[in-house]
Amino acid sequence: MKIGIVCYPTFGGSGVVATELGKALAEKGHRIHFITYSQPVRLDSFSENISYHEVTAAQYSLFDYVPYESALTSKLVDVALHEKLDILHVHYAIPHASVAYMAKQILLSHGIQLPIVTTLHGTDITLVGRDSSYEPVVTFAINHSDGVTAVSDSLKNDTYKNFKITKDVEVIPNFIDLKRFSKKPKDHFRKAITPNGEKLIVHTSNFRKVKRVQDVVEVFDLVRKEIPAKLLMIGDGPDRHKIEELCREKGMEDEVRFLGKQEMVEEILSISDLFVMPSETESFGLAALEAMACQVPVISSDSGGMPELNINGVTGFMSKVGDVKEMAKNALFILNDDAVLAKFRVAALARAKEFDIHQIMPMYERYYQRIIEKTLSSK
Ligand code: GMT
Asked: Which of 1, 165, 174, 247 could form a disulfide with 86 if both were Cys (CB 3.0 to 4.6 A apart)?
């Protein structure tokens, strides 16, 4: 199939899922066209089956806001016409679902029927999409997509709860490339970070309010009072400065390192003992799956789709949002006994294997086929 993929090219989970899916589909022989405003972060290798189409919007003195949606729509029409796409898969409803709808209408005026699949990822439904500045457009665009998927049952339920949706929403979970995300021997690196055998806790996120990164600091503060420990903070975002200040106030500068955005996060996960994800809401928790694939157990909140990934007492523990005391207690239960930690590591990897990209990608392929047949038969 010739597949167009639209996503945010950034470090966020939706962009990662879109890019890794496109790469895997290309490896299988599909022709993939990425269409976005800059090269996707994870599109880090050449494939003869992948093209990247950069979207640029013409500047004009009248524009306070560059109309990116118009530029993206025009680029989608151009790529669909000239590359003869079989289907267009857009990730994250805002603004991609409504842009796809507009492109579809323009293509119809050229006598071309292009099936559109929208994948809902999380905050497009649970947070920002509910704002009155987006909700009417998000609702309309989801209902006028030919196919709609969500990354968890929880997100599917939130979609029906928060929006008047008349479409069937298919659940296709996120996935992991176990070749890339596996525990690699990095003893020298571990020694450098924890020279005195300290336990190593890690957190990855875009440091936004929904991630509750302050709870990571509180959990770590309780843990370090019981056992020698270090904390690595991966990622960047609006809350990073506030969190750095909080660490300084707690006098933990020597035990916490802020690494910023990291391309090779799997190398850091390979030396880590515990991953903490205390989010207010998390539709799936792709960063936690990446940790599990590197044999790192997860301490998380029980919000959103986390219970569909993290198995309480087996791959880690889940607590109510904000319950940092219980999160710290559970962290110590795992970190205090190497045999317990080893057991959780084995279980975390076994769980991650259930989301292997080679199991999940065919679900998208079958879904594409179904949507193409349904759309073209309704002509
Ligand atoms: O984690 C973020 O806020 C980024 C966001 C995104 O859309 O890029 O992540 C969402 O999509 C990921 C990929 O499907 C999910 O694994 C994350 O759980 C989800 N984030 C939230 O729901 C907060």
From this structure: 1
